[in-house]
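Researcher: We plan to redesign the surface later, but first we want a full-length starting point. Tokens attached.
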């Protein structure tokens, strides 16, 4: 294997050292007569497969960041340990993808320099471990967080057109490897596989659908924002400060959770236990594990509902809070539903809430007490959005002006028309959203934090989204990207034609290189034959 022109011996040696873990010069390699065997090629293919595997996992890791706060809360409820696990995920993924990428680049450079691909056994073990770790991550995702597979489907509506362009460019790697095979049958087989993949990629846009491929004048209005427990990136969740911050973000609906204390006072709280969002372990250590409804209102008022926000920093935005906001956050207490309704009424903001826990033996009393507070508050009933399914008919009779929001899709034989639905964003397709919009059904999807996801749902025509990042989505004046179908068709044709020209040029160039090498190889064979005959004489 002669070094191609421009590839010096020092460069080849520097490439061999990290890949093969041996300090062997290129000249010694030639003297040894080392060649890349089929066994070495199989390890190269395995390396390429691991790289693609980790690349796909990196894509998934970026997608699930939208929902990772739910994972952090889940871990806290299980282990009582708060940590931003998204950082752990991203760091681990970056290490794995960087390692496989560096090895792949080294292998390609060695191939260009005409050096053997002798992958060291340490790298082989690490590559197997990388594949196992990523496989375990995918398995865990499928078992514990299966809805994220639906999130990936939604994400393809935002990234599909651009993934197609990247895949077209990535065919270079397959072509460069296919052109180095010397076996005739293997070369024909690889060429056929490559051509089939090329045709599939060229025609892939026929199967790519995205709601953001539309004309500018067809873009639906921007979805309204629903503050998930207020503005939890800017203030402690389910507090009056969080509600006021949501007002500053132009949020139209304050989404919260209501529980009823032991002495019959409805208050705002999401978790069944108070340990995550209060200092109950310091104030009532022997009762910290009790359900939130086991505390009376006097006890609840003694708890600090804001300091945890500054100490645990559930979102990176906590670090950028002003000194005044920090002081205000530290003073927060658990608000009653009455206080929240008064603040919503003054801000002309709607309030949507769930009543927890649904399986409580005294749940009907919870409904009646909560309705009593709503009716006494003086808030316009059309500003109250009722989520709980339990005893909904009683609510309709006692407070007919309340708007009812259903956590399910409409049924075929509805007794009463469904006007509002509240669902996870993974549970509704773009086609269903458009159909509901045509039927004048308001669709709210949760929880939407990332701009790419908000853009897809905006293009789909969703009415509103529940979000933790109201301060981010408020600033979006337009979807991240919007392409007319004619423009996308033009990009598709141009990219495919340009890549086809490059591939044809690569074929011609490699053909010329092979013709140049043949005379040199034939002269070497003649010289070796003469030397052999002289030695025999």
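Model: Full-length starting sequence:
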């Amino acid at each position: 294997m002669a070094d191609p022109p421009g590839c010096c011996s020092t460069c080849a040696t520097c490439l061999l050292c990290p890949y093969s873990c041996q300090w062997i010069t290129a000249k010694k390699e030639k003297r040894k007569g080392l060649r890349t065997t089929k066994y070495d090629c199989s390890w190269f293919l395995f390396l390429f497969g691991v790289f693609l595997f980790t690349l796909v996992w990196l894509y998934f890791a970026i997608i699930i960041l939208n929902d990772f706060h739910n994972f952090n809360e889940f871990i806290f409820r299980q282990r009582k340990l708060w940590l931003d696990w998204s950082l752990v995920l991203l760091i681990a993924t970056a290490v794995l993808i960087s390692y496989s990428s560096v090895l792949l680049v080294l292998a390609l450079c060695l191939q260009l320099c005409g050096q053997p691909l002798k992958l060291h056994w340490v790298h082989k073990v690490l590559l197997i471990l990388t594949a196992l770790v990523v496989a375990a991550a995918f398995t865990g995702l499928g078992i514990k967080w299966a809805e994220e597979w639906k999130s990936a489907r939604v994400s393809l509506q935002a990234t599909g057109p651009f993934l197609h362009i990247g895949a077209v460019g990535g065919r270079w790697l397959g072509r460069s490897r296919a052109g180095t095979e010397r076996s005739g049958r293997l070369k024909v087989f690889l060429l056929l596989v490559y051509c089939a993949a090329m045709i599939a990629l060229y025609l892939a846009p026929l199967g790519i659908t995205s709601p953001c491929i539309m004309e500018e004048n067809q873009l639906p209005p921007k979805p309204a924002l629903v503050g998930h427990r207020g503005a939890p990136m800017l203030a402690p969740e389910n507090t009056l400060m969080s509600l006021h911050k949501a007002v500053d973000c132009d949020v139209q609906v304050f989404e919260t959770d209501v529980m009823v204390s032991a002495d019959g006072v409805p208050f705002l709280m999401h978790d069944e236990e108070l340990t995550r969002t209060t200092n109950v372990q310091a104030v009532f250590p022997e009762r910290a594990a009790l359900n939130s409804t086991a505390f009376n209102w006097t006890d609840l008022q003694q708890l600090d509902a804001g300091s945890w926000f500054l100490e645990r920093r559930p979102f990176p935005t906590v670090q950028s809070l002003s000194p005044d906001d920090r002081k205000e956050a530290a003073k927060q207490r658990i608000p009653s539903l009455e206080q929240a309704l008064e603040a919503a009424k003054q801000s002309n903001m709607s309030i949507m809430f769930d009543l927890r826990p649904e399986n409580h033996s005294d749940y009907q009393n919870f409904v009646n007490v909560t309705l009593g507070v709503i009716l006494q508050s003086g808030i316009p009933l059309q500003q109250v959005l009722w989520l709980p399914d339990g005893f909904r008919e009683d609510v309709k009779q006692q407070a007919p002006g309340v708007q009812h929001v259903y956590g399910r899709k409409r049924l075929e034989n509805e007794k009463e028309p469904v006007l509002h639905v509240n669902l996870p964003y993974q549970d509704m397709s773009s086609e269903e959203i458009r159909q509901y919009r045509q039927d004048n059904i308001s669709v709210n999807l949760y929880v939407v934090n990332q701009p790419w996801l908000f853009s897809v749902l905006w293009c789909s025509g969703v009415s509103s989204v529940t979000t933790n990042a109201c301060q981010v989505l408020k600033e979006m004046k337009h979807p991240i990207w919007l392409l007319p179908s004619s423009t996308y068709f033009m990009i598709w044709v141009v990219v495919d034609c340009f890549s086809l020209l490059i591939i044809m040029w690569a074929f011609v160039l490699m053909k010329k290189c092979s013709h140049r090498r043949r005379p040199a190889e034939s002269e070497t064979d003649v010289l070796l034959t003469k030397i052999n005959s002289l030695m025999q004489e």
